């Protein structure tokens, strides 16, 4: 080897090493990362706007905070980098191969050792490049659509929890008022029983009403604490962290919205879009499997010198003859995968459309029930007010007043619960229809 070549070899080695990746450790964090106050959360929207936590949060603010800070969503978004790396890998050609050999002369008519060398490049990637690249792009788009669907669901869940928490507080306030009213009545009834002015039946009635109200209050407080903990978890907060909420305002679905929204459901709902991208990926992989019947194919050049000093050099081609395997197994698997994804997409589309129609029918029923319950609650409240006046004037007994007041409060709580069910159903319908999401312009090539 000449002196100039010796000088170039270190530089060649440095260039090769510089192109190689290096390992860097990334130890896991063992301390949970939960916030103790709203101000330390991520408050910047993707459009650059900031979410104010100084005032009680509206439904859109709660949804945005959940999407920005939910730990599960943060973990899901990391899958984008994995799919992006697969797209990068699909666009990179294979590295060339270098071979060499040396044969020492041990005897015979030869006069020198033999030397052989070859340079080979696998060109299979050029044949399947377009299909593999298309599959990787569809896979990345599928991951992004799946993440968007998770974000959409988390936003909906946060809004529903806010609705439930408002209803929880209204029910708790009603039950506390009822317990505060029934407590003195029960005490007065027990005094009247001791003085033989009332019977034990009257005492049992007032005591049962008080016990029922207290049990319902305990259950409502547990439900509220559970809903609060769920909202804290969605926002990445420590359990028990206060989240001030503004009065809930949910817009009912507009009349006639169902048919046109279902007609464009496949172009707007992220989970259906993800399935379409998955089908596109499977279709591209099927084309790649068909193209690989004759692969791998390698092109190169080989040369050398034999022991008699004869130098040779020439092209080299290597390919696979599809005589036995013929890639039939890979093609059959790719074809079956594509067919399965097509069936899954059709089933999911039908389920989404049917679920939206069923939920819309439930909303119409809940609207009627909530309106009826609210009207009845107002009527019973008027009756309870008259009963209070009669009780104060001594015209009815304390147990009778307790029964009337408990019935009025129970009807009020029923109206509150039905209104909350209606609002959560309306939020669910908006999620199922993908309302607010733009239609997909082009999901398949």
Whole-number average pLDDT? 86
Strand content: 5-15%
| CATH fold-level assignment of the domain at 86-96 and 123-293 and 326-433 | Outer membrane efflux proteins (OEP)
**Major sheet summary line:** 4 strands, antiparallel
Helix share bin: 55-70%
Which term fits the overall shape? elongated
> What structural class is derived from the secondary structure elements?
alpha+beta
CATH superfamily of the domain at 86-96 and 123-293 and 326-433: Outer membrane efflux proteins (OEP)
CATH architecture label name of the domain at 86-96 and 123-293 and 326-433: Up-down Bundle
Question: What string gives the helices and strands in order?
Answer: HHHEEHHHHEEHH
> Helix tally?
9
Lateral arrangement of strands in the main beta sheet: 1-2-3-4
CATH class of the domain at 86-96 and 123-293 and 326-433 reads: Mainly Alpha
Stretches with pLDDT under 50, minimum 5 residues: 1-9
Question: Strand tally, please?
Answer: 4
Radius of gyration computed on alpha carbons: 37 Å
CA-CA gap between termini? 54 Å
